[in-house]
Design goal:
Layout (H helix, E strand, L loop, with lengths): L4 H10 L3 H25 L2 E3 L36 H11 L2 H6 L12 E2 L10 E5 L15 E2 L5 H5 L4 H17 L4 E3 L22 H16 L4 E7 L12 E3 L2 H8 L1 H8 L5 E4 L3 E2 L2 E2 L4 H11 L5 E4 L8 H6 L13 H9 L4 H17 L14 H15 L1 E5 L13 E5 L5 E3 L9 E2 L5 H9 L4 E3 L6 H10 L2 E7 L17 H11 L3 E6 L14 E4 L7 H9 L34 E3 L8 H6 L17 E7 L3 E2 L5 E9 L5 E10 L10 E10 L4 E8 L6 E3 L4 E3 L3 E8 L7 E7 L1
Parallel strand pairs: 3-5, 4-15, 5-6, 6-8, 7-9, 7-20, 8-11, 13-16, 13-17, 17-18, 18-19, 22-30
Antiparallel strand pairs: 1-14, 2-3, 9-10, 12-19, 21-23, 23-26, 24-25, 24-29, 27-28, 29-30
Helix pairs in contact: 1-2, 3-13, 6-7, 6-14, 7-9, 14-18, 15-18, 16-17
């Protein structure tokens, strides 16, 4: 949720219930303004003068009452031996109708607008909600009151291609949720990157549903292991910020299930996610939060989801329709689920049984995760320990895109001087803007990190300001030039182009002309165009590394750490190459976005149409070299079984490094898939000269497609191709599998 205040005010005025929405706006916009305004001012541009901080930070929380379980020792729902379902039923039986309705919406409070107040006399705890795609976000008062670890952007996490890293990411967030006294984390964002211009591209995991699912499932499990509610969002087809409150996404049933719904399905089936957030937009004519075919027909009836559905903030448009559709909790207040819901029950348009079911879905999850059985307590976040975890993840997700003549890694024993220039050299890229912003425990700028790592023997030439002439002078005087550039993406606004803003392309060209040994470090949350690519020696996609930015950047530049990332999203050579370059597809015409590309999202579009991207999905270089060969795959397989592939990977270079083996499946023509699709991968780290036989498992779903006639997944017998390599465009190892 979030966005600019004017954008949300416009959304309110577009509603038919203008007067009601204006009153609603006054009730919660002011406390929200504190967060949004601070986010837009602070975001990721924190200066380097804070980087000296190395102490453990204290945190605070806002709790509406000091809940004490001893107040109700005889309460049947507090009996620990009972099941969550039994405890929930007993509690609901005790509540009055007014209490029940009060539990079905948030309440804006002066110091916390993300809360559903509990019922202290019945030991019902507050539901304390926190934004969390990139760390424990600011939910209490203005941003400065809630410091937490600013993790790498979720897109950087996806770039690790490593579910174990996603587990560490989620584990840290779950721990910090407990340390800050909160209990519901609005994360992960599993929306596909359909439109690279989307201002929230950095918040999610890229363009492929299989990769997104693998990362999301690992993260959710780790978060919920701490007794914290995880929330998969934004359900569904929420792929742009432009007109996001009203836009109608027209999507085929097959594309919905194979692409946009698939990650949500994985979070339900494989991670048992406790909650789902319904999005602002419409899908095929109906707002998500009152879309019964999606909220009930798919989410609950098909997948067996047992958790609760919360609205995005202000995404509720009705009372009876939303209840009937399957929405359970309105945030941030009770515009539709407050007095109007109580009136609907009294009028008989919403039943008592429906109210109880809505409550039960949330209470069962809260009992399951132990939220009723513990007091919200705070404790210091271990900044150094968590900073090291954040750094490790960021390094593993950093992608080396170009490295001519082995410019990198830099050898400080052979280099006397380094010019560090560019507008992002003196600011830590802690994350994108909007509601996902985290108030960092500390920040380390690239300049500070490089200076510290280089030591006294290497001169760092860093001109003040962003003057091109000064940058050129510095570059001409140094042996190597490092240009740190970037772009601030934010919720609420899409990018106007894929080019770097503020004449940064011209800066890079000028520096490269002055010093051919120029390395470019990009800090951003989405693909960018690179008209200067052939003139520079090296390019690193550093994403938003989080609070440890400078340490990460220096470690990768000097080779203390391997740039272990691979692209989770295609970098196009030109904007005209995007699958959504047609205005009907994006930003839409008269409030409607046509998904005419259907299944051709991301790399599928480039493969299907023979378009050469600037850098393909899955691409990334290493500081060493690898040989991937000897694919072994069965010639025949049963459609009910998974398939195992084995591949030999050898490190043929002179240093330790990592490679990601990727397996794509090509369906028979009659299936109608546009291209081969990622269905398995594994990341392997090998010492110099080391080799290993790695296994990639293809699940049964790898050979299935959604059939719109039967409304189910089906497997068509026939010959399936298996393509194995190191990117979507580089799959030299092939095999054929006959499926019975």
């Amino acid at each position: 949720m979030g966005g600019t205040l004017s954008e949300m005010h416009n959304r309110w005025n577009l509603s038919p219930e203008v007067g009601q929405r204006r009153a609603h706006w006054q009730a919660w916009a002011i406390p929200m303004a504190l967060v949004v305004a601070t986010a837009m001012l602070g975001t990721s541009c924190t200066g380097g003068d804070e980087s000296a901080s190395s102490t453990t930070a204290e945190t605070t929380t806002s709790v509406t009452f000091p809940r004490d379980p001893s107040l109700c020792p005889e309460a049947a729902w507090m009996e620990p031996g009972a099941t969550p379902a039994e405890r929930s039923e007993r509690l609901i039986d005790e509540l009055t109708l007014e209490q029940k309705v009060a539990q079905l919406h948030g309440e804006v409070q002066p110091d916390d607008f993300r809360v559903v107040p509990g019922i202290p006399e019945l030991c019902v705890p507050d539901l304390l909600v926190t934004n969390g795609p990139a760390g424990v976000g600011a939910s209490v008062e203005p941003l400065g009151s809630l410091p937490a670890t600013a993790l790498p952007a979720p897109l950087a996490l996806a770039a690790t291609w490593q579910p174990s890293m996603a587990h560490d990411f989620g584990d840290l967030m779950g721990e910090e949720m407990r340390q800050t006294g909160r209990n519901l984390l609005e994360a992960p964002d599993v929306d596909l990157a359909r439109v690279p211009l989307n201002g929230r591209t950095f918040e999610a995991f890229g363009e492929d549903p299989f990769l997104v699912s693998e990362i999301a499932v690992a993260q959710i499990k780790a978060v919920q292991d701490h007794g914290i509610i995880a929330m998969a969002k934004h359900y569904v087809a929420n792929n742009q910020e432009e007109d996001r409150f009203n836009v109608d996404a027209i999507v085929s049933e097959r594309a919905l299930h194979e692409l946009y719904l698939a990650p949500f399905e994985a979070t339900v089936r494989d991670a048992d996610v406790a909650s789902v957030m319904c999005a602002y937009n419409k899908v095929n004519g109906t707002f998500n939060c009152e879309n019964e075919p999606l909220l009930t027909g798919v989410l609950r009836d098909q997948w067996g989801f047992e958790g609760f559905v919360q609205s995005d903030f202000g995404a509720t448009h009705s009372t009876v329709e939303s209840v009937t559709a399957g929405m359970d909790l309105e945030m941030p207040s009770g515009e539709f689920f407050g007095r109007p819901l109580l009136d609907a029950v009294n009028a008989g348009t919403v039943s008592d049984a429906e109210i109880d079911q809505m409550l039960d879905r949330r209470y069962v999850q809260m009992f399951r995760l132990g939220i009723f059985d513990r007091l919200p307590e705070t404790e210091p976040i271990p900044m150094e320990e968590h900073g090291e975890i954040a750094q490790h993840i960021a390094e593993a997700g950093t992608v080396l895109l170009r490295n001519e003549s082995d410019l990198l890694p830099l050898d400080d024993a052979e280099i006397d001087s380094i010019a560090v220039v560019g507008p992002w050299a003196t600011q830590a890229a802690t994350g994108g803007g909007g509601s996902s912003i985290v108030n960092p425990m500390r920040t380390i700028t690239p300049l500070d990190g490089i200076t510290t790592r280089a030591g006294d023997e290497v001169e760092i030439i860093a001109p003040t300001g962003t003057d091109v002439a000064a940058a050129v002078t510095a570059a001409s005087e140094a042996e190597v030039a490092v240009v740190v550039v970037g772009e601030q993406l934010t919720e609420g606004t899409d990018r106007t182009s894929l080019s770097l803003p503020d004449d940064q392309d011209a800066l890079i060209e000028a520096v490269a002309a002055a010093n051919p040994r120029t390395a470019v470090v990009i800090h951003g949350g989405a693909p960018v165009l690179m008209p200067w690519l052939d003139s520079v020696g090296a390019v690193i996609m550093g994403w938003y590394p989080g609070q440890e930015d400078g340490t990460v950047t220096a470690a990768v530049l000097f080779g203390d750490s391997e740039p272990g990332g691979r692209l989770p999203i295609t970098f196009p050579a030109a904007e005209a190459d995007l699958p959504t370059s047609d205005p009907e597809r994006y930003p839409g015409v008269e409030g409607t976005v046509q998904h005419h590309e259907d299944l051709e999202v991301g790399y599928r579009h480039y493969l299907a149409n023979g378009i050469e991207p600037l850098f393909p999905f899955g691409f990334g270089l290493s500081y060493t070299s690898f040989d991937v060969n000897e694919l072994d795959a069965p010639e025949q397989a049963d459609a009910d079984d998974s398939v195992e592939l084995t591949v030999q990977v050898k490190n043929t270079g002179d240093r330790r490094g990592t490679e990601v083996v990727q397996a794509y499946v090509e369906s028979p023509p009659e299936v109608g898939a546009p291209s081969a699709q990622l269905q398995g991968f594994t990341k392997v780290t090998l010492d110099e000269g080391g080799s290993k036989t790695v296994t990639v498992e293809l699940a049964k779903r790898a050979f299935a497609h959604w059939d719109a006639d039967t409304h189910d997944w089906v497997i068509t017998p026939g010959t399936y191709g298996v393509l194995v390599g190191t990117s979507s465009q580089d799959t030299p190892l092939t095999a054929e599998i006959e499926l019975d």
